[in-house]
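Entry for the shared binder. Reason: the reviewer on the internal report wants the predicted structure included alongside the sequence.
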Amino acid sequence: MRYFMTLLFVLLAYAVFAQNDPKAKEILDKAAAKFKAYPAAEIDFTLTMENPSENIHEMHEGKAWMKGNLYKLNVMDVENYYDGKNIYTYMPEVQEVNIKNPNEEEEEMLNPT
């Protein structure tokens, strides 16, 4: 588990720089490929949102489970499930479920890998 957390930290740290730095993108792609090679993973994380101009400073605990291209992601009181075809978004507070067949960009944005 410690290795997963270290790898996740490395992925997140390089993600910021990978947008403009080809070497950082290469490192991030290699780390992501190694992470995706594991048969299954469970990750605890903290999502931090900072926007000084809007006075937004938030931290949210989350958890993700992944196996192949399937995942479950819990963050900000919302549960997301991906079965390889559809994303099921469950909001327990309002007892609502949304089902979406995402395009590749949408699925990639939510996918914890």
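Summary line for the report: Helices lie at 2-18, 22-36, 104-110.
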